[in-house]
Amino acid sequence: MDMTKPIYQQIKEELQAYIEGLAANTPIPGERELAARFHVSRMTVRKAVAQLEQEGYLYREMNRGTFVADKKKENNLLRAI
Fold first, then answer.
1. Contact by Cβ (8 Å): 15, 23
2. How far is Cα 61 from Cα 74, in angstroms, rounded to an integer?
3. What angle do CA 78, 58, 65 make, to 5 degrees?
4. How distant is the alpha carbon of residue 29 from its chain centre?
5. Global pTM?
6. pLDDT tens digits for the chain (81 residues)?
7. Could you tell me if residue 20 is left (phi over 0), alpha (psi between -120 and 50 degrees) or otherwise beta?
8. At 29, is the secondary structure helix, strand, or coil?
9. Residue of 6, 63, 65, 66 with fewest CB within 10 Å of its CB?
């Protein structure tokens, strides 16, 4: 791991690389599983996932989980503007 970047940023980058290979609407592992996988707290994972959600890579559905966003749909909306 790169010690010059915050841990959440490193996790965000790893998750971003992971989800780029997934189809839209694919669920990602939950916070507990990701925290165990990366050996960090759930708050650290939550911060990384929240940034990916804010940037449009993921979306959350209450009581269902976190899913890969459809980047094509977002790109089409941007072109329409």
1. no
2. 18
3. 145
4. 10
5. 0.82
6. 567 899 999 999 999 999 998 999 999 999 999 999 999 999 999 999 999 999 999 999 999 999 999 976 555 445 555
7. alpha
8. coil
9. 63
Instruction: Categorise residue 18: left if φ over 0, alpha if ψ from -120 to 50, beta otherwise.
Output: alpha
At position 79, the amino acid (one-letter code) is R
Calculate the alpha carbon distances from 41 to 2, 15, 20, 29, 66 in Å: 18, 16, 24, 15, 18
CB 11 within 8 A of CB 55: no
Token pair belonging to 63: 């009581």
**What is the identity of the amino acid at 25?**
N
Strand partners, 68: 58
Handedness of CA 47, 27, 20, 35 (dihedral sign): positive
Q: Which two structure tokens, joined as six digits, stand for 25?
A: 């609407």
